[in-house]
Amino acid sequence: MSAIINNSFRTFNANNFIDSVAIDRNSVYLAIGKSDPWSGPSEGEYDATTPSDVNPPAPPLDTSIATSKHWDDFIALKRINSSSVSHVIKRINWTSGTVYDAYDDKQDDLIDKDFFVFDPDTFNVYKCLDNNGGATSTVKPTGQLTTSNLRSADGYVWKFMFEVKQPDVLKYVTSDWIPVAKTPASVTTHPEQKSVEDAAIDGKLEHIKITNGGSAYISDTGTVAGVPSANQITLDANASAVDDIYNDMDVFITSGTGNGQLRRITDYDGSTKLATLSSDWITNPDTNNSGYSVAPAVVVTSVGTNNGSGATFRVRTVTAGVITDVVQVDGGTGYRQATASIVTAANGVNATLVPVISPIGGHGSNAVKELGGAFVMMNTRLTGTEGSDFPVNDDFRKVHVVVNPKLIGTNTTATENTYRQVSNPELEKNTGEIIYTEFRVPINRSADSTEDIKLVVEF
Q1: Residue 8: CA atoms inside 13 Å, Cβ hemisphere, count?
Q2: Which CATH superfamily is domain 7-84+386-458 in?
Q3: What are the residue boundaries of the structural domains of the chain, listed by start?
Q4: What is the per-residue pLDDT for 23?
Q5: DSSP state, 112?
Q6: Burial class (CB in 10 A: 0-12, 13-18, 19+), 2
Q7: Does 27 score more than 90 pLDDT?
Q8: How far apart are alpha carbons 249 and 342 in whole angstroms?
């Protein structure tokens, strides 16, 4: 029997940890410890035989005796409150000349890929939906479109996900990590992310990948020469003179009156340039004003019952007979599986298309889950003596996270903001659970010092 721990399980555990702090189900504390220099060995605590303050032992051992040794070394503890805990994701700065991965619903361990970017100038985060066939990214994504995607001049398509707010920058942004607000986002603190979540459409198709562009396909662009009736269009003088050559192809109005309409050509007269369409225009294009594009038609087919409808795509670019760009006209809704193909026409062969299905809920519906929020950062700031419980003019070398320690001589869970553990200790040793341990080089504390401690835990 084979099995895996899904990434969703890790995110689930991360959510539960954050919730346990946020609703005060648990008392979670940052503890500092060990004022004496590193020396060794220390059986059950670490394997290093000659550790020093320059080279602390690594890694800590997870043994029963280690817990007792850590408690013996505790100096003081400060409570970690709900405003100091956040999901974090890896920081991937957008850099020109980089090939970014595109979101792919069939990619195993997608969160290990570089498929989203962070702009350190605007603090915006974008997910890559299309990397233009693996091309380098040369145009930085910009803006905060919440209901549509951004198509850059380099062929990349980006989905704006959220903006890292300034208070979160100070608390959680490091060279390796950026924060992401838990879903659903607060309209007060993270309005852009909330707008993206609200606009997300479950099962919407945002991208069709071209795995083989085929050969011998044709296309045509020009300006509308006339609209004799609601289900016809006269192409311009440069259109093909061959009868029926555009049959079963699509015509799309690219500009001017009627922009954005897509219709299938059922008959074409090469001498008059008149194309008859499968259905009427909703808004008739304007002669000598509206631009058009004729290209091979794309058909999207839902797989399974009650599984998606309404998606419409078109071929935007054919280069030397090869289909090089397929774009969305309408993403539809409800897709879980789908196929896509080019309609067989009088020209072109062998193109292969693969629809990329959006995550359940749609792109942007759950930034934590979509971008790999299985990591949690706890940020705690130690200032001076913290009301006399934290000694100064001394060092510490250990950092821990402790859950639900007990008051000394009682079975009562600690709830105060700070506790001292040297000179009249306030907490009972070996109570609660030490869930995180980190060994460091010595950090000297003084009365006017402030330590901003950021701990990242992977679930």
Answers
A1: 4
A2: baseplate structural protein gp8, domain 1 (2.60.340.10)
A3: 7-84+386-458, 86-201+362-375, 208-357
A4: 75
A5: G
A6: exposed
A7: yes
A8: 9
Query: Which tokens in the block code for residue 410?
Result: 């009682």
Per-residue model confidence as pLDDT tens digits over 147-198: 999 999 999 999 999 999 999 999 999 999 999 999 999 999 999 999 999 9
What are phi and psi for residue 198, nearest 5 degrees? -65, -30
pLDDT value at position 59? Answer: 87
How far apart, in whole angstroms, are the C-alpha atoms of residue 97 and residue 119? 15
CB neighbour list of residue 379: distance below 8 Å, 6 or more residues apart: 84, 85, 86, 171, 172, 452, 453, 454, 455
Radius of gyration over every alpha carbon of the chain, rounded to an integer in angstroms: 30
Q: 203 and 363 in contact (C-beta within 8 Å)? A: no
Q: Which 3 state secondary structure label does DSSP give 352?
A: strand
What type of residue sits at position 388?
A: S
Structure tokens at 85: 């805990």
The number of C-alpha atoms within 13 Å of 308 and in the hemisphere containing its C-beta is: 26
pLDDT interval class at 449 (50, 70, 90): confident
* Domain 86-201+362-375, CATH class in plain words: mainly beta
Residues 6+ apart with CB under 8 A from 319: none
Bridge partner residues of 351 (DSSP): 213
Distance CA 109, CA 260 (A): 37
Cα 23 from Cα 73, distance rounded (Å): 30
d(CA 24, CA 18): 10
- CA-nearest of 232, 250, 247, 241 to 323 is 250
